[in-house]
Design brief:
The chain has about 110 residues and is mainly alpha-helical. It is about 60% helix and about 5% strand.
Length: about 110
Amino acid sequence: MSNLSDEINGMEEPLALPRKNGELQFEEPWEARAFGLAVALNSKGTYAWKAFSEGLATQIGQAKASDAGETHYYENWLKTLENLVIEQGLISADELEARAEAQAHHDNHDHDH
């Protein structure tokens, strides 16, 4: 059985994580947090990495097939993570929505005081 690092590094297109010069590439802080959360939950045994990668493949396929246009890689990553934590019963869809709204409000608040 391979370790998680090997599984992540072995992900092929279109599942492969964005990289630049071999290093993981994140354009926004939330992308790195979503990545870290997915890895941490897997490390704690919440779900198998195979379940995550299969969910990610499904999500990317659905995004490509939709008329909504191209979806950013980490948006697919985050949607996959959301689906898994709901499926695992860690949080309800309503609670996840409420927390996302609260975080968005916090992120949009002016912190220059």
